[in-house]
Amino acid sequence: MMNIDAETVKKVATLSSLALSDEEVQQYQGELSKVLNFVELLNNLPLGDIDVTSPADLVASPVTPTISAKDKTPFRQDVAEMPLSREALMSNAPETEDGAYVVPNIL
Amino acid sequence: MSTALPTALELAAAIATGTQTASAVLDEHFARIEAHDGEIQAFLSLNKDQAYATAQGVDDAVKAGNASKLPLLAGVPIAIKDNLNVTGTKTTCASKMLQSYVSPYDATVITKIKAHQMPIVGKTNLDEFAMGSSCEKSAYHPTYNPWDTACVPGGSSGGSAACVSAGMVTLSLGSDTGGSVRQPASLCGIVGLKPTYGLVSRYGLVAFASSLDQVSPFARTVEDTAAILQVIAGKDAHDMTSSAPAILPDYVASAQAGSLASQLAGKPLRVGIVEGFEGEGIQAGTQKAVTEAIARFEGLGADVKRISLTGFQEAIAAYYIIATAEASSNLARFDGVRYGLSEREGVENVYDMFAKTRAKGFGAEVKRRILLGSFALSAGYYDAYYGKAQLARKVLAQSFNQAWQDVDVLICPTSPSVAFKLGEKNDDPISMYLSDVATIPANLVGIPALSLPCGFDEATGLPIGLQLMVPAWEEEKLLAIAFAFQEAVALKNLVPPAFQALKVSV
Q1: Residues in CB range of B369: below 8 A, 6 or more apart
Q2: Predicted ipTM of the assembly
Q3: Upstream peptide bond of B156 is cis (omega within 30 degrees of 0)
Q4: Residues of A with Cβ-Cβ distance to B358 under 8 angstroms
Q5: Does B202 touch chain A (CB under 8 A)?
Q6: Disulfide engineering: B162 pairs with which of A86, B153, B184, B239, CB 3.0-4.6 Å?
Q7: What is the C-alpha to C-alpha distance for residues B49 and B322, in angstroms, rounded to an integer?
Q8: Three-class SS of residue B236?
Q9: What is the pLDDT of residues B147-171, one digit of tens each?
């Protein structure tokens, strides 16, 4: 059984930049433990039979490209394109000044 | 069984031949939306001005004698899931985080839809950031199933499924990360197709889990599904994971009588039934409908055998690690700096602003998945969770590859049950997650999969969906098999009786 303690939930919340109330910490402690126990299903599988020789092997490609071998590593011509204007890109910003995003104190 | 409502291809033909104008088609569909969406609540916003401008352009072309030059599906109204960017419309992802976000650009699929002169009627409801299987996790309101409004339409693309089911449009787009198009298609009695990963560009789709997400269409017939796939498919320079062939196959031609026989070149169709969908956890009505579907395939001359796929039932466990890990990374962009909600009152510094903005903007399910994903990727747990899940994905891919030696298509129920009641699965995340047990494997290995109606549950009268899966890039065969089955089972263009009164003329 995998049971997550409150400290772990708080640590993960910090990693996730999520402010959690004490009630939420308690709630997620229970729910995440449940989900992680469910994930134990994976231990039913013959995972040891898979050949992993490099970390890249762990990132499974969703599809073996069958269209063309060239697609395996996609290349494109290095041609300049007109991007969206700065005004369009910044149109949804909460606060801007002189073409820059404004945020609260960093330090 | 079918209804009097026209299909998308029938509408397109009527518009192109001048028996009906695109503007009148749009009028009739907006009339249906006004009559029915109060009850169904499929839409988050409507887009009348842009839609009528597009329809007028089609009508002008017909009037000028250029009907023969109109693209496929010109003038046919379509609805778009609210996680796809359409310039000048709100794209909320059904989240408070993006309540006032207005898209400054078009997703590539939207560019294609605009080039085909299809009026976009509005943006549809979803579980927040596409995370859910019932459409109840929208931050705004739930959507209701047209077959029984006490039931959910499925999710996450519940709004896009419900509006097609209720005849408010003939076509819509959703996104399918673990079954978010196929499961609601099943629960609403319509067709949903998740294409091969890479066949349709993801550019402009708000990312949930990038190695699994695929823009996916809904329709009420296999023929219409083929037509909208024809419009949206294709390699895109803006999505380096798109890898479709330079010249697309003729999908519309695949969904026609005789197409399957010619594709199989005289050989019998080899059908594999995925083991593990009998007994506990699978509703009796669903089991019965699938048994009858197997008999239909035998009636079509297919060789049917049972196939055991190692890792199929465990795929859901791998999915909830991989999808949440990718989501925790993708959703890091919602930080209150460049767009979306930003909590500035009483914050100490920028890090406090990040944490409070995200606490306020995200709903409980989204937070749960971000936390789970961050946990699975964190030091000390990475190998035990994320690494193991990726290995499970490889095991699954190997068992599919082995199965393709023996069969052309794999079938199973799309969902273990028919549409469930609102609130029924809200207490326990695991029981909600389990409604995607049959759909998740196709996302993990990237193959195309389609759900179409195969019967009705006698106890509830609700529709049941059958899922068909084929090897990557074999959409033509998938559509041909689906069409042959649709004709054999004679369930097409289904609209619930309560939504048939308002006519659409062609």
Answers
A1: B131, B323, B324, B327, B328
A2: 0.89
A3: yes
A4: 16-19
A5: no
A6: B153
A7: 40
A8: strand
A9: 999 999 999 999 999 999 999 999 9
